[in-house]
Batch of 4 targets.
Target 1
Amino acid sequence: MATVYHGTSLKNVEKIAKRGLVPNKKKNHDESGDFVYVDESRITARAWGRQVGGCDIAVLEIEVPEDMLSRDGQTLSKTSYRAARIPLQFIKGWDIYKYDYLTGEYDYIRNESNPHYK
């Protein structure tokens, strides 16, 4: 098993908590393909969440079998992976942050656990 993280907006967590982590079909996936992206670094995932979610972000902690992950050939990162989807039972929970534009810092708000995690 590998522990990886995914950053997203706080509003997306509601959808993820219902169906797991799946590619967003509404966005243009010419570059990313039909994958979801995760990273070994919580800090990297938090930065991704800020890109997507603005001030209110969530970082998902995921424990997934290593064979569900593959390297992304388009990136030089040795800590980033992609997966076709990540079912809900592999998501342990998520930390919620608020980004402060004045200080450039993340304020930790709370942790929520996933009742479907096995």
Note: The first helix runs from residue 10 to 19.
Target 2
Amino acid sequence: MATKRKRSLQDVVGQETYSVWVNMLRILVPDGRTHRLAPLVAGMLQYALAVSEEESGEEPDDDSVAQSLLDTRQRNIDRVAL
């Protein structure tokens, strides 16, 4: 049997936080403007990254969202260092 892949932000930030985010976006998006929602979503991703970094000692699966966030952060650090 195939193992379930953790490809959801819910797996990173937890069910309660994820539910709040989804409900908030459902309310804001219909009348929202992209330029106003972008900072909100960026903040959500920054929070998810912070949670991933706190839990990085647990070695997330290679194909998990947590690992993708950590990889992206490392690529950005490497790019700035050049």
Note: The first helix runs from residue 9 to 13.
Target 3
Amino acid sequence: MSREIIVNAIRFTQGGRTCYLAVATSDVLAKCPVPRYNPKLSVRDKRQGFQRSLDEICKRARLVVAYFSHVIGTICIPLVLNDRLGNVKFTPIGKPDGCSQVGFLTLNLDSLPEVVDGQTRQHGTSKVSDYVVPFMLTSEQDVEKVGQIFYDINATATRVGKELTSTWALRAAKEHGMEVFADAPNSERKKLDAVGMEAVFILNRRATSPLSGLFIMANQRKMLRKEELRVPERIITIRAFVDSMIKDNAIKNAENAGVLSIEDCVDESGEKLANLLDVFWGGVKNLLPMCFENPLYYNLTTAVGVYILHKALSRLIVVMDGDQLGDSASFEKALKKTGKFNMVNVKEVWGRGSKKDDIPPGEIAQYGSSMGAAGNWFRRNIQPHLPKKEKTV
């Protein structure tokens, strides 16, 4: 008599293929066979597999084991299994005609489905007893179609954008408090990152902000360019915006000035930083509104432009008092004295230029994406004209 277990499942169709989504414990899924690729077998041979041996990917396997052995380890990507022998049975519930998409999967413990994708996840979770693991199940008997599933999953994989992975710091800080970074390497950088990211999220959705809706993920931009689509006018990448504030100490200087404290909860610090940025960028927009109305024609809201503006912000925070830091007019006055934030010469300084319209590039455009060259330009043209901190005797 065969041994069986029954799990709740959802049936769905994807790409003309019937699939099932369910969960089972790590103890059960650890017993699912992993067909290995054998170069001596034809791809049409029913014995052929598509997985490398764990020895070939031992470093990754160890990392996965370490992750899932951690108290907060979480698996959010399901294993992909295939019932090549047709031993798994789906029993719909809720409708007498059997058409319900909700039901039960009956798994034969003596003949479990094979792992098509996710062997390191299977290996990692097997080290944690009774760990609940999601899986997607197909029922392909044709080995070539099984191979196509594996190829579709792995041949189109892309790296996650840095700004997406950076949100780990923010989300963890929200859930666990800043102490989550106490023993982490470079923990201060993670705190600054978390506060900066939260400020960006606030600004992006704050309708009254000059930066509202202005941000885009770097990987979104790459995707649009790959599809040969025009990059939208909202062109500041979140990563570049936050990095520029950290690199030039804008966030640290704001903390030293008493504007915020990175030791507070992320929501509170992010809100305070967002308010400061709102005031500062509001002053910039009052001086050069056309750069926000037609950002594609100017470098003000590119990574280089943001880098220059945040270098200025970092220095102004140090010399301004609390009332001035809350007043856009104070930032306007300071920036206007540099002579580089005037309506009269906006194209000569910030214009991108156009070969088609025979418009020469402005001062910033000639440096392209070089932050070093832009930094030198700032030190020559902006920094000498910013207000200085009065010396005390």
Note: Residues 162-385 form one domain.
Target 4
Amino acid sequence: MSKSDGRWTEGVCGDGAAILYDGMRVDIASVIERLNSIETLRKSRNDWVRSCSKYVAEIETLTRECDDLRNKIHAIGGSWIA
């Protein structure tokens, strides 16, 4: 089974239904494997997004703290701080 962005459809095989991927019959085990892989990737992506959001928030906090310190240094006459 290809990992491309193919098209999933259904068809008739004998007296039952068949799952098709780009027109080719796919066995149920392969479909389940693909669905489980997608769920695993989705969870990994969501974990990664949460991690990134956490780090962005930390960077924003550190930036505010640096700005506050820079302002305090300027207020006491520390013109040597950029």
Note: The chain is about 60% helix and 20% strand.
